[in-house]
Design goal:
Blueprint lengths: L17 H11 L1 H34 L5 H5 L10 H10 L22
Helix pairs in contact: 1-2
Length: about 120
């Protein structure tokens, strides 16, 4: 059985390329060439994205209007009071046994749901 050599075949042009120098340096200093740029990207990204996030929430706050005390007091003035007994008697007075199913008319061009 043949034994494969441990040394990989590399063409002669590979030794002078940037990839070969980076691979050799990465083997000697893995944190400096891989870990440090990654951590720097995460930290700097956090600083650059903070204003964008703040802008998002400021825009949302502008959409939500705060109400004044006068508006809060005037909201429920014109509403009808609801009495549960009254609503119960209204429903009890209706004839729920005799009813007929009616189809709702569709708008022009709307699909009718039948295939």
């Amino acid at each position: 059985m043949a034994i494969f050599p441990a040394k990989k075949f590399r063409p002669s042009s590979y030794e002078s390329s940037v990839a070969s120098r980076y691979r050799a340096a990465l083997a000697k200093h893995p944190f400096a060439l891989f870990g440090l740029p990654f951590i720097a990207t995460m930290v700097l990204g956090s600083f650059f994205l903070t204003p964008a996030t703040a802008l998002r929430y400021e825009r949302h706050d502008r959409k939500v209007k705060t109400m004044t005390e006068d508006e809060k007091l005037g909201i429920g003035k014109d509403r009808r009071r609801i009495d549960l007994k009254e609503e119960y008697y209204k429903l009890a007075a209706k004839d729920l046994d005799n009813w007929e199913q009616k189809r709702v008319k569709r708008l022009p061009g709307e699909h009718d749901g039948v295939l």
